[in-house]
Amino acid sequence: LGWPKRQMALLARRAWGGRIRPTIRRRPFRSVPRRDANPFVIRIGAIFAGRLMRSAANSYLKGIPKHKRRRYFVGGVFLLSGSLGCGFAGYYYWHLTPCPITGRQRYLSISRDEEIKVAQQISKHQADSWKKEGTKCLGVDDPRVERVRDISVRLIRALPTLELAVEQSLEDKVIESMEWSVTLVDKKVANAHVLPNGEIYVFTGLLDMCGEGSDGDSMLANVIGHEISHALLRHGGERLSKRNSFLAAQSLITFMVWTLMPDNVFDVLGIRTILGMEAIQEQLLHIVLTLPNSRDQESEADYLGLLLSSAACYDPRQAAILWERMSKVHEGKEPPELLSTHPNPSKRAVQLREWQDKAFSIQRDTCGCNSRGRPKRRSHGLTGLGQQFLSLLH
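Request: output the structure for the sequence above.
Response:
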């Protein structure tokens, strides 16, 4: 699937009659390489900082009358924590950006280059893991690989059509940094994923779930389109950014709790109770801060994936049918939606049916539909540089 990415983008914009904007590569201001923080080390550091603050406050408050010590101590702790919280809130607000197509405000604190490096590490790690498990990646001589590849190419070719249909653009730096490739993994898992650098992985179990024929291709296209949407909308980078913000919020709360905690707390509660309280705090923050955002990302990818597969002339009705099928397979096994990273499958099917009118309107403009509502193949209607752009994808 390799082709000159920059040339493809330039030809595409000229074919659409849009202006060509130069790509400016900005290097983040950082004197040392960025390293991932160890959550355990950060937690222990917050605990020690809290106890040191408690000890320093006790020493400072010795010269203050007893009836004022508590008020001074609690006020000082909340003033310090409030200052740190305001600084964190300002940093969070500064890194809010609108998501392409949907317009949702998202928090992104890592650069695109860092996101690509993480994707390369994940690619290497999962390749080593599959090698140890004995899981094989099928070669090009397998007809199923050609099927997945053809569907993926059609979806990628439909990106310019989708942008024209919704009258909005994806991020140039994201599209230009993609190194598209397709890998079919011989594993009986009904799943697929796309890394932030454009590596598409599909498992043979998903092909069995979708079935053969045009309906099966439409189901498969919707799943791959969903995963491509995750990569194009930088959901991976958003999750990495959220992980850092979650750790910061957790550390701030830990600092406050251990600063306010009396000196004899270990004698009263015991270490097991205190550690249990820490675990409950972590789970509550995970439910409140992390899971809702993850479900929003899944719904966002469902929406864009449906529109993308429709722009590629696949039947959008099959998306809801697939999730209804998934709902029956996993019936009774799914956790409550409040505790899940994904929306309920039956709820996703309902949402996909609500978005079908938008999907069909894109099809009518790009592919055309017969009386049964199924898309029929026809040329994209591009001439000149537009045809040169399409020829690069062969």
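Strands lie at 96-98, 105-107, 181-185, 192-194, 199-203.
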